[in-house]
Please model this.
Amino acid sequence: MEEGNIVAREKGREYAEEERQRINKKWMQKETLKEEEESVDPGETRTQTDLGNMSTFEDLMQLAGTRGRWNLLIFLLCAYSAFPTSLPTLGYQFLGATLDHWCHIEPLVEANWTQEHIFSFAIPYNNVTGNYESCRKYDYDYSVVAQLGYQAAMQEKVPPTTTISQVPCSSRDFNLTQYESTVTTEWDLVCERRVLYATTQAAVQGGKLIGFFISGYFLDKFGRRPVILCSAVFSIICGFLTAVAPTIEIYIVFVALVSFVNSGVYLGCFVLVMEISSTQSRSRLGSLFAVPWSIGYMVIAGVAYLVRSWQWLQVTITLPALLFTLYYWLLPESPRWLILHNQLARALEVLHWAAKVNDKKLPPDHHLLSVMEKIAAKEKQPEIRGGRVLDVLLQELKHIVSLVRVRTLRRRSLIVFFCWLAASVVYYGVALNSTNLSINTYLYIFLGGLLEMPSYILLWPAVVFLGRVKSLSVLYCTTGSTILLISVFILFIPETPWVVVMLVSLIGKTAITAAYQLVWMMTAELFPTKYRSLALGHASFLGKTGTILSPYINDILGSLVVWAPSTIFGLLSLIAGGLCLLLPETRGRQLPESNNIKHPEIGDHELPESNHLEQPQIGNHELLKNDHIQHLETRNHELSGNDHLKHSQPGEVKRKGDLQSKKSLMYTLPEKEPSIKNIRSGIINIAYIAQLDEDGKQVNTKQ
Model:
């Protein structure tokens, strides 16, 4: 036994000396690479000599530049899409405004009766609402009444104590002091025709609901650029045709089409920005992407104030979409999508364009193509072979439901879907259920957009310093707490000053607005390129479902139990705030390319941003950012046949299975010159392992 221990110690000393030399060599490599990093641009972390170590799309974008003029141009082009697409959605507040109305009585109007005379004689007064009836009139022969005149008719009128029969109106007059015309006045969408008005509102949300669902599939199938361009063209055409719709039915069709295609423009542009952004800039760009939406929120109020006819207002809010024509010349296809679909030549053209505008020099094309092939090989797209139509449809259906069919995507998909549903229900629910800031509609809409600006701007530093998951949880919990506090005010403290209620409401609206945008950003970061647009489309589909549910919760349930809507919105927010903690942190992470999601799971949120999804290799500059020397590799030692020490992940010190196998021992050394203490520890570990058999038991070395 003693003789075996002596042999093991000698072997351990030899091995420790070799390891000390290896570590010294790595230390010198590290110092050399640090000097190289100081001599190049801070924005570039790769050089041509590192091409062999490149394995992700982010590596290629670093070569072409990630903070140059090209990146700024693409961001501004894509972010602009939020401005024209917001106008039709928010403009319906004015396009379909419902004006005060009453029954039109033709004989009395022709007899030059004043409106006050018509009200007092022909229109019933509702003592409950304190207003004249909008859809009913007294049942008189108004031809005879017109001949009598107002004074004589009032004398002949049945006394108020007598019940007079009432009949519905056949036509109506509208109060046109604020608007020249609206969709409501154009087609008389009040009273018994009110269902058509509700249909026009449902067409806006229904078009978005279907649009996001289908656009997500088209974006992944045919590419970002073709879908954006086609959607932009139809958005312009349908927008102008809506203004000349001859009937309400055709108007509803065009409104739904505009919402449908605008979904494709917005979704495609958002995905494109996320895919060309560097890991460090996604927080900033994802937060600022929605700023044009809030600008459109404010601008529509001023435009509607100046343009009071609904036809000309529709034309005016469609005009900004004409700038979409610039996309044909300036908007590229996502190089990430091109690489994964094996269109390497086109991807190379985009990278050359980006490098030229950013004043960067790329390595030779054959080197770049080699890196692209390596990236594309990670996740080959399945080919649908020719065959029966049913087989092709089945294959496409599997792709559509793949987010819940693929095991590695299922849990995060369900959590993301619920977060979207909660964000949408609460966002629109708070907007519909909040206290009015002013009786002036124009001022109310303007202030609504103004309040969204700080939400997007403050979101940027929050996701940088707190991370995505913590920020989202805090925003949801803040929203839930403020909304539940309003329920407490309604139930137990009804005399609460309106200023306090207003302040609490605004805090909740600001938080849920920021949460809604952050959910967009996280969804783009959580899913691989193959499913990214599909995930955003499905999530947006569920979000629009929540948009449709919000009015029912407010109007129907709220009329029965006044505190119920606030309670439901608050609980949904708190549940979403808890569930989102189960999602992996994406701050500082590269966008995943394949189904084999490498984001850290529960408990790994605290890993530093510099840890990569892919296993780093020696020579990789990112390796130097970690706090430990990575992956201390060992050669097969002579004491135990094929057994060898495995390398560990950064900072990991443990034995798997309690040393049931010598292969499970993992350790790391500090990132500094190895000390005698470290070498001694290594000798002891090696000597101990040399005496273990495959079951972890000591062997008799004398045998």
In short: The beta strands are 101-103, 125-126, 131-132, 136-138, 166-168, 172-174, 654-655, 665-666. The chain has a mean pLDDT of 75. The chain is about 60% helix and 5% strand. The longest helix spans residues 2-38.
